[in-house]
Amino acid sequence: MDHTKINLIVRLQHLDNKIQNIVSLQKGLPEEIEALEEDIAFTAKQIEARKKIAAEHAKTRERLNDTIEHCRSKIKTFKDKQTLARNNKEYDALSKQIEYEEKEIAQADIQLQDIAQTEQKASEMQEKGRQLIAENRYDEISEDMMPDDILEQQLSDLRDQVEQKKEELESIIVETAGEVSALEQKISEQRTVVEKEAKRLLSKYDHLKNGNIQNAVVKLHRQACSGCNTRVPTNRHTLIVQGGFYLCESCGRIVVHERLFDEAAEQDG
Ligand SMILES: [Zn+2]
């Protein structure tokens, strides 16, 4: 068996590719889950903000109604006192107090109307949203237009979806766990060998991987680097065919003959 330096690094790439293939079985589920969780957080925040506003309105309304009730009872007391007033001065003084309480009531009423109006507007917006949904005009719906019940439904749907995707991912992870750990073991052993026999190639390999190039070692394909499709100079072809390697001038990948990958696969069994 040929154990040249380049064969060692090709075998490492072969094993890394196998792990990558297993990860790709996850079919983008981790990214989908992440996106769904962002949607969930956004929707939950919207619902929470609406509930907070509703609670504030309820609290203010309660306070204002208390004020009104309190003022009314005071007015009643003052009016009772007026019937017992001994002179005009006393009567007028009570009238002024009644007037003051009436103004308080009027002010509270205005604030109550403001709240009612705000709520009315919000509900009209949601009604508009409901119509747009019925007409499938989703792109015209603003955040405020999304009806409360539909927002809740969306949140619940999103939670179901993320739960399902998580289960799917979990089962893939469980199914492939044995294979992955066996591969990880092989990779670790292979790295030890490469470290010893071809340290410079390994550091080149790791450098590319750290730059997010997963396929650091690639095949020569149609006389070009199959990583970036840049043509490999003709005078290097012979070297590659003979089992050597070429560093792509354009992307820096290690270009080898495809035969080397076949050999690595055979060796792997
Ligand atoms: Zn290249």
UniProtKB/TrEMBL annotation:
What Gene3D superfamilies does its record include? 1.10.287.1490
Protein name in the entry: C4-type zinc ribbon domain-containing protein
Keywords, in A-Z order: Coiled coil
The organism of origin for this protein:
Prosthecochloris ethylica
- Coiled-coil ranges per the record? 61-186
